[in-house]
Sequence to fold (480 residues):
Amino acid sequence: MSRPLLLVSVALASYALLSSLASLVAVVAWQSGGLSGQNWSPAIRARRLVMLRAFPTAAAGLIVSILVMPAFVMFEPVRATEPVGPILIGLAIVGLGLLGAGFGSAAMSALATWRVERRWLRAARPLDFDPPAGVPTYAVDSFTPIVALVGVFAPKLMAARTIVDACDQDEWARIVAHERGHLRAWDNLKRWLMAGAPDLLRWTPAHHAIVLAWDDAAEDAADDAATAGQEKARLDLAALLVKVARLSSGPGWTAATISPFIERDRLDRRVRRLLSSSPNADAPRSAPAQALILAAIAATLLTIASTPGALKTVYEAVEAVVAVGR
Amino acid sequence: MSDTARPPRTHFDTAFGPLESRVLDALWSRGTAACVRDLQPAFSGVAYTTLMTTLDRLFRKGVLRRDKIGRAFFYQPQVTRDELRSQLAGSTFAIMLPDDASSARPILSQFVEAVGDRDRALLDELEGLVRARRQQLERTMAAPRDAISRKDAK
Fold:
């Protein structure tokens, strides 16, 4: 195998191995229940769930790019070709499969989003607000009552005309405030990244459980952002959720919308949470530990990468895998 | 024993329930505006209030137009049967999502997800909770005001 091809194979194989191990760690972490804690504020819970979901890809990607590849480039002697064992080839194929499935899924999702957005925009009329909504907002002539922030990088707020007509100015302001909560948290981008994560975790039940838990936390965080802890605002938002849900209720609407299997429980939970006087009042509002952990991981990796002895050890480990079955 | 395959659900079936479809059919057949009382003879066994709610739902869905004449609302379809079917077939929001969870889904955050017909009881219950909480909040806010008024009166 030529040197460039070997480098790519080593990178893919190490990615497959490391991301699979990290997926296992993520599954164990999720099942231990520590990360589904209800004591955190929804915003922090959402952030931690995203981090958990991103962990396998991020950890494997960082280790491969900061340790494995530099070690290989630094210590691998320049040879015309090198025979490799079946283990490396097998792992490289798995790595390629993981990346292909993840990126393919992300691309399909982006394409589906673009198609939906383009189709809705064809029948849409821009809505103006005073003060401005802070997000491009459109009313769409449609029989399916829906209000949604659509798009990954530059989301647009789209609402069925039936909902626009049924809501007064205050109610619209509340809807916009909620959706701006999603916008500020980059929730659609996070949703997209989680949908396209190229790792083994995506094929486990833990993936769906984590994404659903994140979805709940993100909705709660957007509700909190829209109400700013004011009791009357929470009550008004709860009433509005029921009103819009009632407009959207019908035998068929669920088939045409997202998450038909969770909407009932989520609406129930969201409304009850908004009606409870001060949910998560004691919950920590910031996550300094999170930033410290990230900084520590990055510092450790960079320290190892700048130590020739450590890189040599990494190289020898890689060589051992390359040589298996040769 | 023979199995008959269920016909595929059309956009129309997806958008309207059986009673809503019957009400629309009745209005299209009449060709003129009708109030609940006008339609009731064609809906034996259906309560007056159910029929009224169904008409109201169709109005809210934007399918019917209504005018108040005297004390009653008179409903009329906004479009013909064929127009509605073709609009639904191309309905912008009705394209949405594949049932298969593994298929690619568009990326969007909904304000509130749609709920099925079966969940009206839940909506009623939640509405009751909101109402009760609002009354409780109003009482709480009114109490200090009352105390101040009593103090002023003394």
Observations:
- The first helix of chain A runs from residue 3 to 31.
